[in-house]
Amino acid sequence: LDAVQARERFAGARVARLATVGANAWPHIVPIVFALDEDVLYTAVDGKPKASTALRRLDNIAANPEVAVLVDHYADDWTQLWWARADGIARVVRGEAAQPGIRVLTERYEQYREQPPVGPWIEIRVDRWSGWQAAGPEPPPAP
Amino acid sequence: LDAVQARERFAGARVARLATVGANAWPHIVPIVFALDEDVLYTAVDGKPKASTALRRLDNIAANPEVAVLVDHYADDWTQLWWARADGIARVVRGEAAQPGIRVLTERYEQYREQPPVGPWIEIRVDRWSGWQAAGPEPPPAP
After folding, report:
1. Which of A39, A95, B63, B105 has its CA 20 to 30 A from that of B38?
2. What are B101-138's pLDDT values in tens digits?
3. 3-class DSSP assignment, residue A98
């Protein structure tokens, strides 16, 4: 997948996985819901995960803002597999700085319109969109 | 989820995501198919991903064997969400050392029985199983 296609796969996905790395160099990975605004990806710490998990993610970003986010599609037919990845720089935002993220997340998820998360929010400026898809089945022979 | 429950979620999942971190501290994340044997998780570099992606994963493990693996379930009904994570130590194996992994992977995925991957293989000794699930809907009131 090229960068445009990879970004499109994100735009169509409801869930992604966020990988962060703290000062101790051990990777941390959690599923996230997210919304895009151009090349910025927003996600919320919404209080549903365990507090310790939420803190780990935030501590890691404070120590090392370099993050990776993945969306993927699995099927037992492996010719249908694909994934897309966003590598970028994250920061934790609160208050007024969180308004753009709150706007696109509440537009995208009705769950957030019913019960807005309290934050904080994570804003990821994506430097690189990349991806891969299986070659797919052989095309039918030309008539 | 406790450790036993988290491991059970892995045992029931067909796809996971592997996060690795190389010498440059940027996290890398890819989807994987995998199989378990007790507390060891096996996955293969099977030649379908881009060569550069496969190498990144292997280079990262050589530089830093600490990895994290995630399985998760998404539903628009957020009371159904769950995830499970395995933190462990990875090593790249080839040849005779890869036989235990090849055995459990080919048992689990008929795709591998039809077309065995060429390897190399990644063996992850899981130090910690953890996880989370949403509280679920409120139970009905007692009669």
Report:
1. B63
2. 999 999 999 999 998 888 899 999 999 999 999 886 65
3. helix
| pLDDT computed for residue A45 by the predictor | 85
What one-letter code names the amino acid at B137? P
Q: What beta strand segments (E) does chain A contain?
A: 16-21, 27-32, 35-37, 40-44, 66-73, 82-93, 121-133
Q: What is the ipTM of this complex?
A: 0.89
- Cβ B20 vs Cβ B61: under 8 Å: yes
Please tell me the distance in Å from A70's CA to the nearest CA on chain B. 7
A132/B81 Cβ within 8 A: no
Nearest by CB to residue A68, choosing from B27, B31, B76, is: B27
pTM confidence score: 0.91
The predicted pLDDT at position A108 comes to: 95
